[in-house]
């Protein structure tokens, strides 16, 4: 019995010693070298691996929670193709030389001067070319479902060219102060312009893929497919697509990349709108205008003004103009009836004037009749007058995206674009003064300038032609003899009547 108790005591003591060794206590006279102690240190050997999750953060622009400001995350790599290029990071601006590269972080601003060009690249899948005169601020790059990334940029001004790889799994959002341009498909290639100002012009041209343009104020949007251009003004719905002139655009883009001085993309698109579309043109009916009689309808249905010089009608204050046009093979009929009762196909040109519509405004229904007249191949002359004149033409003006009786006032007009109506014309006088024309669409071409604003404008997109003049007196019996007013009036009515 005693031996059994001693053996149990020895076993008990050995158990206590083993427990002490396992918890790391030192026991005098007992060696721990063979008790497997190294295994208790194993958990600390792999400790450095806890940093691994932060290695990939810069490539997606989403830093680890412990990384304080996101501005320290590399989002894109910038390469300078042509100087001057300036990058502002953390309030410090640096000028970069040709061939220099730099990491771009959140909120970095890139400014490209005249003749310059630079490229922002993300993993070779997204390339944003920043052209001369442009200013861009780096937004964030975020991960989306399915492994897609979404890159956002703030475009303050100038031109950009965006290329998204076919398998990029990437979306690009360009945010201007007035609108937002968002790619709709991988493989999209497109140019974007933004011109700051009260009107806030955003224009786009799509080479491949598709993009959406959304106006911030109205919330209205437009999808643009390949081989079209489009635009929107601040507070206006984006306009329908316009067919591009591919060769002209490629030449423009090549010169822009070389830093050459070229016109803006917006100006180029404005010209295209006025010309037949080379891709899918909806051409005017070839016989619509020539089959109409050589007659002009002067509308007096809204009540003409009667002044000391007579009534504002072809039989009154415009009698000299009427005689002039007869010598050019044209006749003028005065209309005092409701427009809905007039056989408008009997006329090539319709004239509406603030002074010939002095008593009451055109209704929306009458404006629609006038618009349809132009769509069917008839031409239209709209004559405004000085600020403060009755706004009787507002319904018609809004249909054609113009505003009459605008500032500044106009008196002498001497700057003209190259159009047949200005052949032999060096100066036009607005007798007793006129006003400027507000232009709200690329469809409207500012054709003659005075005091730095449009005094005469054209619309050539429709089957019929439209001319807007900021004065009603330039062709009356007092204004017709002044400077080149007679030559301009002759050219004007011949052009509207499709007489070469």
Helix content: 10-25%
Q: Tell me about the biggest sheet?
A: 17 strands, mixed
Mean pLDDT: 82
**CATH architectural grouping of the largest domain:** Sandwich
- Say how many strands there are: 29
Alpha carbon gyration radius: 37 Å
Kindly estimate the percentage of residues that lie in beta strands according to DSSP.
35-45%
Query: What is the CATH domain class of the largest domain?
Result: Mainly Beta
CATH topology of the largest domain: Jelly Rolls
Low-confidence stretches: 1-71, 275-290
Q: Strand pairing plus helix content: what structural class?
A: alpha+beta
Q: Give the number of helices.
A: 9
Number of domains: 2
What is the terminal separation in angstroms?
A: 138 Å
Overall body shape: elongated
Could you characterize what this model shows?
This protein has 500 residues and is α+β, with helices and mostly antiparallel strands. The protein has two domains: 216 residues, Sandwich (Jelly Rolls); 202 residues, Rossmann fold (3-Layer(aba) Sandwich). It has nine helices and 29 strands. Strand 8 and strand 9 form a beta hairpin.
Short description:
The protein is 18% helix and 35% strand.
Features:
500 residues; alpha+beta; Jelly Rolls; Rossmann fold; 2 domains; 17-stranded mixed sheet; 8-stranded mixed sheet; 9 helices; 29 strands; 18% helix; 35% strand
Helix-strand layout with pairing:
Elements: H1 2-22, H2 42-45, H3 57-60, E1 74-82, E2 85-89, E3 92-96, E4 101-105, E5 109-112, E6 117-122, E7 126-131, E8 135-143, E9 149-164, E10 170-175, E11 179-183, E12 189-195, E13 201-208, E14 211-215, E15 221-224, E16 228-232, E17 242-243, H4 246-257, H5 265-273, E18 295-299, E19 306-307, E20 310-311, H6 319-326, E21 331-335, E22 349-353, H7 364-375, E23 379-383, H8 394-399, E24 402-413, E25 415-416, E26 428-439, E27 444-450, E28 453-459, E29 466-469, H9 485-496
Parallel strand pairs: 9-10, 18-21, 18-22, 22-23, 23-29
Antiparallel strand pairs: 1-4, 1-6, 2-3, 2-5, 5-8, 6-7, 7-9, 8-9, 9-12, 10-11, 11-14, 12-13, 13-16, 14-15, 16-17, 19-20, 24-26, 25-27, 27-28, 28-29
């Amino acid at each position: 019995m005693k031996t059994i108790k001693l053996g149990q005591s020895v076993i008990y003591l050995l158990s206590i010693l083993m427990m002490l060794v396992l918890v790391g206590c030192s026991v005098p006279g007992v060696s721990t070298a063979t008790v497997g102690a190294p295994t208790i240190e194993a958990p600390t050997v792999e400790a450095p691996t806890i940093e691994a999750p932060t290695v990939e953060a810069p490539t997606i622009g989403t830093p680890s929670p412990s990384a304080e400001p996101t501005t320290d995350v590399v989002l894109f790599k910038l390469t300078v193709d042509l100087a001057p290029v300036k990058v502002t990071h953390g309030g410090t601006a640096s000028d970069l030389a040709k061939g220099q590269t730099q990491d771009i972080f959140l909120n970095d601003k890139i400014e490209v001067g005249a003749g310059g060009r630079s490229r922002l690249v993300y993993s070779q899948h997204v390339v944003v070319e920043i052209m001369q005169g442009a200013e861009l601020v780096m937004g964030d790059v975020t991960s989306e479902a399915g492994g897609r990334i979404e890159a956002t940029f703030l475009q303050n001004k100038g031109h950009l060219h965006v290329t998204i790889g076919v398998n990029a799994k990437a979306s690009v959002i360009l945010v201007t102060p007035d609108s937002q341009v968002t790619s709709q498909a991988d493989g999209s290639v497109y140019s974007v312009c933004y011109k700051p100002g009260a009107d806030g012009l955003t224009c786009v041209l799509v080479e491949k893929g598709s993009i959406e343009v959304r106006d911030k104020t109205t919330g209205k949007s437009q999808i643009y497919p390949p081989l079209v251009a489009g635009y929107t003004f601040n507070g206006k719905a984006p306009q329908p697509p316009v067919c591009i002139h591919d060769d002209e655009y490629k030449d423009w883009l090549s010169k822009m990349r070389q830093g050459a001085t070229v016109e803006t993309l917006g100006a180029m698109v404005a010209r295209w709108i006025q010309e037949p579309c080379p891709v899918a043109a909806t051409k005017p009916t070839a016989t619509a205008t020539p089959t109409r009689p050589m007659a002009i309808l002067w509308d007096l249905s809204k009540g003409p003004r009667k002044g000391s010089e007579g009534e504002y009608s072809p039989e009154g204050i415009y009698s000299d103009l009427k005689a002039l046009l007869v010598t050019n093979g044209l006749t003028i009929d005065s209309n005092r009836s409701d427009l809905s009762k007039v056989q408008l196909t009997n006329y090539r040109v319709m004239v509406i004037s603030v002074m010939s519509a002095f008593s009451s405004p055109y209704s929306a229904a009458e404006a629609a009749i006038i618009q349809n007249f132009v769509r069917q191949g008839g031409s239209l002359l709209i004559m405004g007058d000085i600020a403060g004149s009755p706004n009787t033409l507002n319904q018609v003006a809004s249909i054609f995206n113009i505003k009459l009786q605008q500032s500044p006032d106009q008196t002498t007009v001497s700057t003209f674009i190259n159009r047949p109506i200005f052949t032999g014309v060096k100066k036009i006088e607005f007798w007793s003064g006129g006003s400027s024309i507000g232009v709200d669409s690329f469809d409207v071409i500012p054709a003659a300038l005075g005091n730095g604003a449009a005094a005469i404008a054209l619309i050539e997109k429709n089957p019929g032609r439209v001319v807007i003049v900021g004065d009603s007196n330039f062709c009356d019996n007092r204004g017709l003899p002044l400077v080149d007013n007679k030559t301009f009036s002759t050219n004007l009515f011949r052009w509207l009547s499709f007489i070469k």
